[in-house]
Amino acid sequence: MTRETIFPHRHLLGIQGLAPTEISALLDLSDDYVDKNRSADRKMTTLRGKTVINLFFENSTRTRTSFELAGKRLGADVINMQVSASSVAKGETLIDTAMTLNAMHVDVLVVRHPDSGAVKLLSDKVNCAVINGGDGSHEHPTQALLDALTIRRRKGHLDGLTVAICGDVLHSRVARSNIHLLNTMGAQVRVVAPRTLLPSQAERLGVEVFHDMRRGLADVDIVMMLRVQHERMLGSFIPSIREYFHFFGLDYEKLAAAKPDALIMHPGPMNRGVEIDSDLADDVERSVIREQVEMGVAVRMACLEVLTANLQKDFR
User: CA angle 288-30-311, nearest 5°?
Assistant: First the structure.
């Protein structure tokens, strides 16, 4: 099976709509890159002559650095565009930016944007492949893929697992992408959050809803904590940080409700003492947070490879 057939899409804008076989193929390829990245000879020429631009309208350390490292390990020329210092900050529209990038003959564009749908708009206007690095509260597909890879390497499978996604679900693109992926791959998904941090009619996403951590974590295989996104909150969503941690922060007492071998995840950056107890976050027996970072490079290498392999195809 060729790279073009395992993922027959021009862009990666979200998880929603992907088939289980397409997700599995990306995870299988990512698995190969995990082993390659752990070897002494990590530099490849797969994307030699290709240009990857990281266009980030929001600050990011993990995602941008991970994509940069992924592109460079594959041999691509990687450029990080600082939007705050670019023409966009001077009033250039997103469409004008697309026209400028087209003139540069870029191969892959990785975009993070604060507005949901902005990455899709940009993908309609450029000739290159586009990867969504996170748009508003919509989706963050490569984060869901790296989370799935982390789980699959530890548990051996995704189907049949029970996963609790806890915290600020309302503002989380990570939660949405993970819900789509886990449901598609046969996992049972719960969301655990105060009512103020849940989208309306959350059950329509195909999840069980809980407002109590101990009930929500009962016998789960995976506990996925979310960052409290203060920057997206217009108004008062939680009474105080101290009260939030008391009821919804993960500590050993609440974790006791989960299965004894339940894994703890967090997309980062962590607010220690807010979403998760610091000692628990560093517990190497339970936490796979650092593994998630490692899996991120491998997943992004896989995504860059399959999308560049598709560049010559006609998707009309």
Answer: 140
